[in-house]
């Protein structure tokens, strides 16, 4: 029975109303659904996961709704490991890999079935279909996902009745499922680690989704340039809303909170308040990415002169960042260390900072001591995919201490940030923040810049802005 609101207008349901609501509904079962393009890829991912944990039961929840305030919830976004392994996006679901005697696994996708019309929950429940939209039936999900689907309301009993095989679960996603199994925290962490490891190298379908995400993002950036005059008349919020419109039109949403940072806000790495003024003469740092319907996200940054023309000082700093990015991108190739592109870009910026006399040289010593970090702040990139910072739980030896392979997707995003209150630099430098970020996929002979559709050099940026902003 659905929970009654304390101040609800209808405290009781008459027998006559209940009978009326339960009758007269058409059969809407969809019998002609076909497996998604992702289904065979997800099956191969499950097979790869299976080989890592023979004889063990694996439970990967999709996650639950999270309350924003009172009875209002945040838009649901499933756990990326579940999406990757199941090719699915449902809430309150779980993928269970049940071990077989031969060392392999049988996979089952547990989901909420369609609401039954045999009780009042289907129209009184806060998250019932009549309130939030139609769900797939279990039979429909089996056709779409290409694997057996079961009622999530039976998963606790199913797990209790299963064989005594050791179980692992991804923690922090579904408290009710965690309470239903006996596991070990360290072993559970190894499962989450493996799920991240298996996303390090993208398959062809995933790269196609990232390409879609980046292409939409390019259009979103162009939208923003075309509406900069509206932002000048209002605030950074106009920029945020403009990009968000493109993300919702062509994808699921934005892949992360858009950074629409004008003026000195550009020196704040994760500025998402986006409520400041946009002034001619200042720079706009826009860091944003469209998330596709399949939940793969782009992550691109451009720094633009609001009035379309860089000042000499802005151009000098911009060129230094661009040259650092060029050095970093040149190091992205198969067989290179993951750290190489970071070190190449950071060493270039260190040299410029020594040249400008903002840190003491020589360059090698300054870099060894990390002195450039006062002005570069962050690393030079990260893996990209279902999460904007993808594969975050992967083993270090496969990620930051690893070697690049074809199919890996990553960002290269050097930046320089001179804080508004930094008295170690001349006053005219203070409040300037510049970052350039592109999304790359490692190929057999180097890399492909997926975001090549956006200009990068200062001259190209200015010409682009003249074309679209006037």
From TrEMBL:
Please name the CDD domains in this protein's record: Prolidase
Cofactor(s) needed by this chain: Mn(2+)
Query: Per UniProt, which keywords does this protein have?
Result: Aminopeptidase, Hydrolase, Manganese, Metal-binding, Protease
The molecular function GO annotations come to: manganese ion binding; metalloaminopeptidase activity
Catalytic activity, reaction form: Release of any N-terminal amino acid, including proline, that is linked to proline, even from a dipeptide or tripeptide
InterPro entries (UniProt xref): Aminopep_P_N, Creatin/AminoP/Spt16_N, Creatinase/aminopeptidase-like, Pept_M24, Peptidase_M24B_aminopep-P_CS, X-Pro_dipept-like
What protein name is recorded for this chain? Answer: Xaa-Pro aminopeptidase
Give all residue intervals belonging to the Aminopeptidase P N-terminal domain: 36-178
Q: Spell out the family assignment given in the record's similarity comment.
A: Belongs to the peptidase M24B family.
């Amino acid at each position: 029975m659905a929970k009654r609101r304390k101040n609800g207008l209808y405290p009781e349901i008459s027998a006559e109303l209940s009978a009326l609501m339960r009758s007269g509904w058409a059969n809407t079962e969809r019998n002609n659904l076909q497996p998604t393009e992702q289904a065979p890829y997800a099956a191969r991912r499950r097979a790869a996961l299976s080989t890592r944990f023979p004889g063990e039961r694996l439970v990967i929840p999709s996650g639950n709704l999270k309350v924003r305030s009172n009875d209002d919830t945040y838009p649901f976004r499933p756990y990326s490991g579940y999406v990757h392994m199941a090719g699915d996006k449902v809430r309150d679901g779980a993928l269970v890999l049940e071990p077989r005697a031969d060392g392999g696994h049988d996979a089952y996708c547990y989901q909420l079935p369609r609401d039954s019309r045999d009780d009042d929950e289907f129209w009184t429940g806060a998250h019932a279909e009549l309130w939030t939209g139609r769900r797939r039936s279990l039979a429909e999900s089996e056709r779409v996902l290409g694997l057996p689907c079961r009622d999530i309301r039976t998963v606790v009993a199913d797990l209790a009745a299963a064989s005594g095989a050791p179980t692992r679960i991804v923690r922090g996603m579904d408290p009710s499922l965690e309470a239903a199994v006996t596991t070990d925290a360290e072993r559970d962490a190894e499962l989450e680690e493996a799920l991240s490891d298996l996303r390090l190298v993208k398959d062809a379908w995933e790269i196609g989704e990232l390409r879609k995400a980046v292409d939409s993002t390019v259009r979103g950036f162009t939208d923003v340039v075309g509406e900069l005059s509206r932002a000048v008349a209002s605030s950074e919020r106009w920029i945020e809303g403009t990009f968000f419109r493109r993300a919702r039109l062509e994808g699921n949403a934005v892949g992360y909170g858009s950074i629409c940072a004008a003026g000195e806000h550009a020196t704040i790495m994760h500025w998402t308040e986006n409520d400041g003024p946009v002034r001619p003469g200042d720079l706009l740092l826009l860091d944003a990415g469209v998330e596709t319907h399949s939940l793969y996200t782009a992550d691109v940054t451009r720094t633009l002169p609001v009035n379309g023309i860089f000042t000499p000082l802005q151009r000098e700093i911009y060129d230094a960042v661009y040259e650092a990015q060029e050095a970093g991108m040149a190091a992205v190739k198969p067989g290179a260390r993951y750290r190489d592109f970071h070190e190449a870009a950071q060493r270039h910026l260190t040299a410029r900072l020594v040249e400008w006399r903002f840190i003491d040289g020589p360059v090698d010593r300054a870099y060894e001591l990390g002195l450039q970090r006062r002005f570069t702040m962050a690393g030079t990139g990260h893996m990209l995919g279902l999460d904007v910072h993808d594969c975050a739980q992967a083993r270090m030896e496969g990620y930051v201490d690893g070697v690049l392979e074809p199919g890996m997707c990553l960002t290269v995003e050097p930046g320089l940030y001179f804080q508004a209150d930094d008295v170690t630099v001349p006053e005219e430098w203070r409040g300037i923040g510049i970052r350039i970020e592109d999304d790359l996929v490692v190929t057999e002979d180097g890399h492909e810049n997926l975001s090549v559709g956006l200009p990068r050099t200062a001259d190209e940026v200015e010409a682009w802005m003249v074309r679209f902003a006037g």
